[in-house]
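ARCHIVE CARD
Drawer: 12
Card no.: 0347
Subject: one protein chain, sequence and derived structure
Cross-reference: see card 0346
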Amino acid sequence: MPDTNVVARERQDQLQGMGCSRKRKEDARFIRGQGSYVDDIQLPGMLFGAMVRSPYAHARIKSINKSKALAVPGVVAVLTADDLKPVNLAWMPTLGGDVQAVLADKKVCFQYQEVAFVIANDRYAAADGVEAVEVDYEELPAIVDPRRALDRNAPIIREDIADKPEVGHGPRTHPNHIFTWEAGDKAGTDVAFDKAPVTVREQILNPRVHPCPLETCGCVASFNKPTGQLTVYMTSQAPHIVRTVASLLSGIAESKIRIVGGDIGGGFGNKVPVYPGYVAAIVASIVTGVPIKWIESRIENISTTGFARDYHCVGELAADKDGRIRGLRFTALADHGAFNAHVSATKFPAGLFSICTGSYDIPKAYCRVDAVFTNKAPGGVAYRCSLRVTEAVYLIERMIDVLAQKVGVDKAEIRRRNFVKSEQFPYTTALGWTLDSGNYQRALDKVLQAVDYDGLRREQAQRRTRGELMGIGISTFTEIVGAGPTKACDILGIGLFDSCEIRVHPTGSVIARLGTMSQGQGHATTYAQIIATELGLPSEDIQIEEGDTDKAPYGAGTWGSRSTPVAGAAAARAARKIMDKARKIAAHLLEVGEGDLEWEVDRFKVKGNPSETKTMKDICMAAHGSNLPAGMEQGLNAVEYYDPPNLTFPFGAYVCVVDIDRFTGETKVRRFYALDDCGTRINPMIIEGQIHGGLTEAFAVAMGQAVPFDENVNHLGNSLMDYFLPTAMEAPKWETDFTVTPSPHHPIGAKGVAESPHVGGIPCFTNAIVDAFAHLGVSHMDMPHTSYRVWQQCNALGINKR
């Protein structure tokens, strides 16, 4: 007789469920060039829109002359703010609780702000029309430095709300002040600092950067006047949220609005907000009665859509003489640009910045964020991270190194001394988060052994005697992901739950629809693997649909690494509802009680009589027939709306080794070893790909990305000639590893992974570079670490002379 365990394993392999490194189901059409992106959409009678944008960062609009533009062949119409006011669409709500001008009304507040929308027969005529619109501006003083925004004589940027005492997040102290948010025990923390024998303080900048996805933002809006239905094909990471916003804006019943995500060429947080181009296209379609396509250029994308970071921080730690932390005090000045469009939950206007205690057991902590307006583009999106988590993790991981240098303790050892211990979980931080699970010591020890950390330190000491610069960076980070508990997280009052609807067909194939939106994460494969394991049906036969609000149940979309922690949980729980019914059917068919059954891979067996079985495919067919338990309806369908009890907290331990040429400032990454713990691993190959992508974007941010401005707030780097996007030529070789510490509250123990390497990788690069100079008294260097900036540090130290 065949070994029953071997047979079960063979059936398990055939499912290609959780834990299997199967190839991505969606890639077959992508590698054949058969994806369907928004710019591929062609509708009958479609016109094209293009934006007239301001050359000034701050100016009054004295007049707009459309006449020459309307005379351009092919131009159909030119819309301005005055045209939007009669339909009450001149302003739109932002995801930060503010309002933003769709088209500038009498004043522009940032360079490239939308001023007019030209509609034409093709995109070339639209571009010609944009050039022909004449706008008379009166330039005004502009604010580029957020540290000057609250000066008594600072120019007032938002005259529309200048007199409002608050704008949704508490009292304001200045017309350019947005909010002050704080968390923790300030008084207790101050006492801890007063008593501590060692304190450190450092000013740390997280410069403004941009996610810069391969595909820019765009949409095709089509309003059907006879039916009153609006369909919008668009680049959105959160289609259902956009549908709600579109209904609130337009007054069209939400049931008559359809948002279709389609394929999206990368998002990284950039495609969560609602942008003026979307609204302008919708208005234009309503006015003209024909579809309108709007696709932004690369310069428009970098200049005007959601930026990230721009946090000007001060980090302080209080410790005993052995480096054990007694208190943390972190403050930040957040530059939100001209409108508060930062994606944030109502209760957390500064996002999840209060995760800044990281992986460490810190008894007293206090953090504060002050947000201000400047004459830059609005945004503040979660660039491959949850909201403001990268800023928080960067700050604590940098400050741990600063403290290590101050007390003379090795940078790995100081982390060991301060880790939350495995037996302390679930652990509630001094700032109120309950970390679900972790084993930080095990992760760090595994990495240090893999790279021969002690040997690297010996090599570094030898190289320093020869005047060479070698740096070893460590990052032991904890991220917070899975934005979901509605008691804590919402956008515009909508809770961040997510959903899954599963329909099982008689032959055992499955269609599942979810409220998320893939932008390259492999959802069609990952979700199918979760359901395959739960239902005992092959993942190859499970089809996943997302992004079409007429089909998928309501969900908050994909961002903040929430797909697996929230929607993945919904998929598992929906499948378990189906399994509950399947068990009843199996018991009925086998004429036993439900308690007499046991589940094995893809079938129910009768306990003590394993030859008596019903496979899941048998049950699928039976569920659509007449031989069912009394009173049971046909079908195997289920819907789950999942509101998680807590967020999830993936973590990791990284080591980076760099060699720096002190004469040129060139930095070579010799080795980067990344260990991630994302809880239960669904598809190891997809995880590997996500980690490679996150590390590459971490490398980009640390080593070259920044959005610079001159004193008049003119962009100095808004094209790919200037903005650094690393290719395979520049990116280092990544070595990856893992541990598995499941989340105790997640149905399958998963935590999410795609953003962790970005969050943990950035401080690891900086820590390595600063470590190369640490013996020369350098405690911090701000990003980006371009060759020129590193050379400047060498020059300041006088070590670049041959």
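Annotation on reverse: The mean pLDDT is 96. Residues 703 and 785 are 5 Å apart (CA to CA).
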